[in-house]
Amino acid sequence: MNKLIMASIVLLILCSCSSSVEQRIDRVENNLIELGFETVMSLFQPDSVQLANPRTLAERMEHYGTPGVSIAVVNDNEVEWSKAYGITDKNTGESVTTETIFEAASTSKLVVAVMALHFVEKGLLELDTNVNTFLKSWQVPENEFTREEKVTLRRLLSHQSGLPATNYRRDKSMRDPTLIEVLNGERPAMNRPAIPEYIPGTKWQYSNIGYNAIQLLLQELSGKSFQELAEEVVFKPLGMKNSTFDYPMDAERSKREAMPHDAEGNSCQPGMHPTALAQGGLMTTPTDLAIFTTELILSYQGKSEKILSQDMTKQLFTKECDVDRNSWPLPFTDGLGAFLMGEGKDFLFTHPGTNSPGSLCFLVGWPERGTGAVVMTNGPGIMNGIIISLEIASAIDIVYNK
């Protein structure tokens, strides 16, 4: 009899917990606020009018023409739930699942920053030394901007290196460009080269190619491919089984790939670069990125050191500079590869990502609260994907943090 009573109590507790999670999911799905381009600044501070007129996720997906959405949520320092909506490809109509793999786009940079700081902590790299000290097969070109101030890892991570903002056009009639050809801007690469265009440390300018310099630095330091290095430092220790920097992916993962959709809603081939990876080449799921987010939260709290110590994680989340609001619409500051906002319980780290023609990722964590979220979509286009991702993240904040 006592065993029966005890079993009943355990069952009731489990059912209660399950119900609570389901209730939170329901609240997220039914409490999106309409941000719009003009109100994006109110991402985590919605006004009373917005709160009084909630929208459903289904309504917002229809409004923006969003083919697919996948969400993972962190609560109490663990991944609490993951859920998927919509389709992976307009042409096939295949449903998105929590195992569907999306492009992380520039959210990749946060993973790369953690990899770099891992080597700093081991004493193999230095944050404030000229990176040319460590680079072998290629060097950051010296010019009038680098006479006094040098390009360092700290400046590369925080977008203060002086290197240009870069797109990644290439001559597709030729072979794939090497990473060094990308850094030099030499055909078959057709991007701007990694040449300083202002004095390092004097200005914030978002630089994709700066992270490719970090990629080369880490590859040369380890003697391994970027995927092998990511697997060793991040993916394997955390159990991120659906994450890779290799593209095209293997056959099994390719079957689970979400196709990007352009602004007209057309399914498109991904525009992934074959060799420049660190700026936006991660393929993953929201669940895997939520596991990664959880590890950063635990490390910040001093409860885990699978990749970084608490001190190093706090350096990652320490303000290095203000973000140029003329080129970046959200009110963040920049750390060592993470964007930051707020104080105390409201302090958050984040990194959004967009890949053309239509892949979006938004990762956010509140380390003092032990909460976080990852939202990934496959279009349509860049701007609509950005806004619906932010609306979902704001709904999660309302449910879990307010």
Give structural notes.
With 402 residues, the chain is α+β, with helices and mostly antiparallel strands. The chain has a domain of 235 residues: Beta-lactamase. It has twelve helices and ten strands. The strands form two sheets. The chain has an eight-stranded antiparallel sheet with strand order 2-1-10-9-8-7-6-5, with helices on both faces. It has a two-stranded antiparallel ribbon with strand order 3-4. It is globular. The protein starts with a helix and ends with a helix.
CATH topology of the domain at 33-107 and 242-401: Beta-lactamase
Query: Share of helix among residues?
Result: 25-40%
Order of helices and strands: HHHEEEHHHHHHEHHEEEEEEH
CATH class of the domain at 33-107 and 242-401: Alpha Beta
Strand proportion: 5-15%
Arithmetic mean of pLDDT: 92
Structural class, by secondary structure, is alpha+beta
Report on the biggest sheet: 8 strands, antiparallel
Give me the number of helical elements: 12
Query: Which spans of ≥5 residues are poorly predicted at pLDDT below 50?
Result: 7-16
Alpha-carbon Rg, integer: 21 Å
Distance between the termini: 43 Å
According to CATH, the homologous superfamily of the domain at 33-107 and 242-401 is: DD-peptidase/beta-lactamase superfamily
The best one-word shape is globular
Question: How many distinct beta strands?
Answer: 10
- The CATH architecture category of the domain at 33-107 and 242-401 equals 3-Layer(aba) Sandwich
Order of the strands making up the biggest sheet:
2-1-10-9-8-7-6-5
